[in-house]
Inverse folding.
C-alpha cells in the first residue's frame, strides 16, 4: 500500500467517523465560541428551586425589600432596587403616584394602577399595572429589563431569573450517559439549548427509589405511588402515564384506574433522573373473580350454612340446563358437577351443585366445561327425572366462563 493510498484511506475514515456521529459535541469548560465582549457566562448558578423568586444580574444576586411576586405570568419587583441596579436615577412623585428612572439614554415613567408606561415620551403597554405590595411599589421586571436592552431568562423550575446586558450563557444539568453514568450539562444561550455539552466530573446514581416497582388498582379506584427516597435537593417530581387511557396520574402521584390493562408511570425529578412503576388496572369483573375462594364440594355440602353469602369459584361440567321459569324468564338454572377425578387422560366429574344465572349474559349447553364465580346461597332441593328429591349446594353465578 503506497503512501498516497494510505492518506486517502485515512481521510475517508475521518470523514465517515465525523459524518456518522450525531448528537451533542462534548466540550471543555471553556467554550471556544465565547465572545467576552458580547457574552457573559453565569457561573455557580444554584438551580435548586427556591421558595421565593431570585434575580441574578450579571452574576450578582439582587436583594429586595419585598420578595419578587409572580402575578398572572408577570414578575413584579420593587422599583427602586431594580432601577438603581440597572443604572437609572430614581424619582417618585407621590402626588401622581409615578415612579421614574432616567439615564443618559432612557427616561421611563410608570404610574401605579396604570398599564400604560412612558418611555422617552412614547407610550408603552404593560402586561400588568404597577402596584403596592407590602409597602413596596412593584413594577414589571421584564418590561424594564428589555426596554433598557437587557436579556432576561426565566428558569421556572428553579424560581430563578437571569439578567444581563450581554448574551446569557449558562450550563444546565442535561442528564447522564447510559453506558458510563457520567453526568453532563447542556449549554444555553439566552434560554435556548445549544448542541454543546460538558461533563460535570461526577457519576450518576439512582436518586429516586420507589417503595414498590409495581402496583395494582381496581377500575374506578386509586393507588398512591410512594417514593421511599429522592436524593436531589429539589424534592419536586413529575408523573407521566405511558397509557393514560388505562390509568391516569395526577401531580401528587395518585393513580386512578380507568379500564383494565397495564401502564407504566414514569417519575422524573429535577435532575431528570427517572424511576418507573408498572401499574396493573384490574376490572371489576377480574377483581371479583380474584376474590372468589376455591372450596371443596365436601365443605359446602356438609356445612352449607357456614358458606352462605361467601364468594366461591368452581370448575365443572354442565349435566343439565333447566328451562327458565315463566315467572322469571331471564333467570336460568343449571346443574353442574364440580369435583374432577382424573383417570389417565380422562377427567370424570361428580358432585352436583345447582347454579342460578342471568340468561342474557350466557348461552350454555349440556357437557360444557365452565368456570363459575358467584355467591353461595345455602342449599336447594329439586326433583330428578325419576321424581327423587335431592338437596344440593346452591349458588348464584355472577360470571360464567366457558372453558370448552
Amino acid at each position: 500500500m503506497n503512501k498516497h493510498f494510505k492518506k486517502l484511506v485515512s481521510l475517508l475514515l475521518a470523514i465517515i467517523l465525523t459524518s456518522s456521529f450525531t448528537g451533542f459535541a462534548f466540550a471543555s469548560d471553556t467554550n471556544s465560541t465565547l465572545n467576552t465582549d458580547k457574552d457573559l457566562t453565569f457561573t455557580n448558578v444554584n438551580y435548586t428551586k427556591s421558595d421565593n423568586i431570585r434575580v441574578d444580574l450579571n452574576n450578582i444576586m439582587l436583594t429586595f425589600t419585598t420578595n419578587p411576586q409572580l402575578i398572572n405570568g408577570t414578575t413584579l419587583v420593587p422599583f427602586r432596587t431594580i432601577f438603581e441596579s440597572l443604572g437609572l436615577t430614581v424619582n417618585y412623585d407621590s402626588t401622581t403616584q409615578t415612579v421614574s428612572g432616567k439615564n443618559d439614554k432612557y427616561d421611563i415613567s410608570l404610574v401605579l394602577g396604570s398599564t400604560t408606561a412612558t418611555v422617552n415620551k412614547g407610550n408603552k403597554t404593560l402586561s400588568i399595572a404597577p402596584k403596592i405590595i407590602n409597602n413596596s411599589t412593584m413594577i414589571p421586571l421584564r418590561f424594564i429589563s428589555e426596554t433598557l436592552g437587557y436579556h432576561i431568562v426565566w428558569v421556572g423550575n428553579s424560581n430563578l431569573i437571569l439578567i444581563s446586558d450581554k448574551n446569557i450563557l449558562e450550563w444546565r444539568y442535561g442528564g447522564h450517559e447510559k453506558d458510563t453514568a457520567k453526568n453532563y450539562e447542556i449549554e444555553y444561550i439566552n434560554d435556548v439549548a445549544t448542541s454543546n455539552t460538558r461533563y460535570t466530573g461526577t457519576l450518576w446514581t439512582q436518586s429516586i427509589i420507589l417503595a414498590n416497582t409495581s402496583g395494582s388498582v381496581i377500575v374506578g379506584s386509586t393507588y398512591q405511588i410512594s417514593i421511599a427516597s429522592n436524593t436531589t435537593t429539589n424534592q419536586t417530581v413529575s408523573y407521566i402515564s405511558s397509557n393514560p387511557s388505562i390509568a391516569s396520574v395526577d401531580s401528587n402521584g395518585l393513580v386512578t384506574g380507568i379500564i383494565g390493562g397495564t401502564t407504566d408511570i414514569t417519575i422524573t425529578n429535577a435532575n431528570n433522573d427517572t424511576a418507573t412503576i408498572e401499574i396493573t388496572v384490574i376490572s371489576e369483573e377480574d377483581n371479583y373473580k380474584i376474590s372468589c375462594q376455591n372450596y371443596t364440594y365436601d365443605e359446602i355440602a356438609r356445612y352449607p350454612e357456614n358458606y352462605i353469602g361467601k364468594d366461591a369459584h368452581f370448575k365443572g361440567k354442565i349435566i343439565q340446563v333447566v328451562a327458565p321459569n315463566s315467572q322469571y324468564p331471564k333467570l336460568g338454572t343449571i346443574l353442574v358437577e364440580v369435583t374432577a377425578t382424573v383417570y389417565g387422560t380422562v377427567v370424570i366429574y361428580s358432585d352436583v351443585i345447582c347454579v342460578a344465572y342471568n340468561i342474557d349474559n350466557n348461552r350454555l349447553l349440556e357437557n360444557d366445561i365452565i368456570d363459575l364465580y358467584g355467591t353461595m346461597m345455602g342449599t336447594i332441593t329439586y326433583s330428578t327425572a325419576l321424581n327423587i328429591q335431592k338437596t344440593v349446594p346452591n349458588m348464584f353465578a355472577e360470571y360464567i366462563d366457558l372453558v370448552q
Notes: The longest strand covers residues 369-383. The chain is about 10% helix and 50% strand. The first helix runs from residue 3 to 20. Residues 3-25, 27-32 have pLDDT under 50 and may be disordered.
